Amino acid sequence: MKLILIFVIKKIDMLIANFNLNGEKKRIVMHFASIVRLALVDDALSENEEKMLKRLARRFHILEEHYKEILKEPEQYAIATPHSYDVRIERLFDLVTMIYADKEVTGDEARILRRIGVGIGFSVNNVEKVTDEAIHLILNNNSFEDFKKAIKEVNKI
After folding, report:
1. In whole angstroms, what is the distance from residue 82 CA to residue 34 CA?
2. Which of 19-33, 46-60, 85-99, 108-122 has the weakest average pLDDT?
3. pTM for this structure?
């Protein structure tokens, strides 16, 4: 009973913490949780994945305590759909960079990337083409500017 109570209290604390985030910070946390979800697809973090997550957490100004909560239960956070097309591409770049942090892209990672791709606003009809191109671009070490240009070519809106 005590264990259940502790679990419920932690869930309530997480919900309150999420509720208190302003709009932009909440979107950033949801995006970070999506990246964590991809990193944990194979149920383990490589050293490179962990370094990248910590670097992104610093870049996004995510506190250590919140970082640990997200790492423990990333599925508790919804996928944020950016309104700006350029922000969608930037989020896709972050996601693909994360899945390649361990120098390989698995089928499960590609599948989840497609699902998150739809969640961040890419068309269901074109998401496979977009994510395959995104993976190809990261595998070939393209810059963000080249990535953005190529994704816009593949996903003309």
Report:
1. 13
2. 19-33
3. 0.69
- Return the amino acid letter for 7: F
Residue 156 — φ and ψ, nearest 5°?
-70, 130
The DSSP letter of residue 156 is -
| Amino acid, res. 137 | L
CB atoms within 10 A of CB 75: 9
Classify residue 43 as left (phi > 0), alpha (psi -120 to 50) or beta: left
Helices (H), 73-141: 85-99, 107-119, 127-139
Q: Does the structure show a pLDDT above 80 at 4? A: no
pLDDT > 70: percent of the chain: 86
Q: CA nearest 95: which of 76, 119, 77, 73? A: 119
Residue 15 has pLDDT above 70, yes or no: no
Q: What are the two backbone dihedrals, phi and then psi, of residue 34, each rounded to the nearest 5 degrees?
A: -65, -40
Q: Decide if 132 contacts 111 (C-beta within 8 A).
A: no
